[in-house]
Write a structure and sequence with these properties.
Blueprint (H helix, E strand, L loop, with lengths): L15 H15 L5 H4 L17 H15 L1 H5 L5 H13 L7 E3 L8 E3 L5 E4 L7 E3 L1 H11 L7 H14 L5 H15 L31 H13 L1
Antiparallel strand pairs: 1-4, 2-3
Helix pairs in contact: 3-5, 3-8, 5-8, 6-7, 6-8, 8-9
Length: 233
Amino acid sequence: MRSDGDGRRPARDLPRRETDALLTVLRALASVPGSDVMRRLVIQGDDRPLWQGHSRFSDALAALVERAAGRNRDALAAHVPGLADVVFRTAASLRALPDRPESVVHGDPVPPNIHLDEAGHPVAVLDFGFCTTAGDPAFEAAVTAVVWDMYGPDAAHHTAELTRLFAREPGHAEEVLDLYRKAYALITYDLFGTGPHDGTSDGAPPCCGDAHYSRSRGTFSFQVREKTRRSAS
């Protein structure tokens, strides 16, 4: 849809062609049942398969939120007032979710990872692995809303716009989308560098953790950390 280096920014009001393509991708992913192989995958930055020791996605995600918050607790606490309470409430809310359908979760549906034909129809979704698992399709929708435009001037507007869209179609509850967005913020907060690039692409180690993740997206790391603080609080 857009490449990392083409200099284009999404319009403030996302075009119908783009949102239709996003809905097509989300529906297609949601149609693929979760499998045992997917459940054995590790989320970037963690040290074990997400589903290890769990039989429900929401329970597995709650445990990951607790582990991730503990990886670099002091660094995160400096940006999130009342961190212990935020983590406790987020994990408890996840565990309270009812059983939900499980499908493949891509986990990183940013514009360069979705390829379209000349008519604007999706033909490929690339780059599985960052946050790929079996899970609730609403988690995929929540992640899509928050990562579609992470560092543009209208990023917050686009997150709200897509959240409303995904609440209407395919009908995810907004409170569930909000909860999953908080969870995503808490499990990815330490995967980006302190400089102007992700990971080690600026020659410096990441803020707190994974030295192998790098996408070179300009000011992406700063904006993700700002989004993490807003989303988690």
